[in-house]
Design a protein that fits this description.
- With 178 residues, this protein is an alpha+beta fold.
- It folds into two domains: 53 residues; 111 residues, Tetrahydropterin Synthase, Chain A.
- β1 and β2 form a beta hairpin.
- α3 runs antiparallel to α5.
Length: 178
């Protein structure tokens, strides 16, 4: 019985000391975190914080005056392709990126040769392999259309092709025989 009383006293003492020790540990950690936060605040405030950034216009860009690029719609049409053995109809929209100084000449040539341009692009789509029409970036078709249009439009007086870039934002195919 005496042993049991001694063990009960030892258990009470250890629980009292561990309870007080846990509270001390929490207080010590809290004080350390407060000191650390205050130290970081002082250091960062001494550094001055982030610098202010001023926006300015960049000089020498080509997007000004006669060299500014302009997008012109070439055509919005549906073309057929039967290379897979089935009839597919491709809904296509093509734009041209040209320089502002060449815009008048491009629109004049577009109006004059509208049917010829449409026929040439239609032939490219009719002859195209299915894998070329399904490329994510349409690199092959874009390259073929660019080459064809550069042959049709030629070069400007500076010796630079009239067309900077061919843009095909829409090229969707649907089975037409279904």
């Amino acid at each position: 019985m005496a042993d049991e009383e001694k063990q009960a006293e030892v258990t009470e003492e250890s629980s009292e000391s561990s309870g007080g020790g846990g509270l001390k540990m929490i207080l010590i950690i809290a004080v350390i975190m407060i000191v650390e936060g205050a130290g970081l605040y002082v250091i960062l405030s001494k550094m001055g914080g982030p610098k202010a950034i001023e926006a300015s216009e960049l000089a020498g860009l080509e997007d000004s005056g006669e060299e500014a690029p302009v997008e012109v719609e070439l055509l919005k049409e549906r073309f057929q392709n039967m290379q897979t053995g089935r009839v597919w109809e491709w809904r296509v929209e093509i734009f041209l990126r040209v320089r502002t100084k060449n815009l008048a000449e491009i629109t004049r040539l577009q109006e004059r040769d509208a049917a010829t341009l449409k026929e040439g692009v239609a032939l490219i789509f009719r002859r195209a392999h299915d894998r070329h029409l399904r490329e994510p970036d349409l690199a092959t078709i874009t390259r073929q259309v660019t080459t064809y249009l550069n042959e049709q439009f030629g070069v400007d007086p500076d010796g630079i092709p009239f067309i900077d870039r061919v843009i095909i934002p829409e090229c969707k195919g649907f089975p037409a025989d279904g």
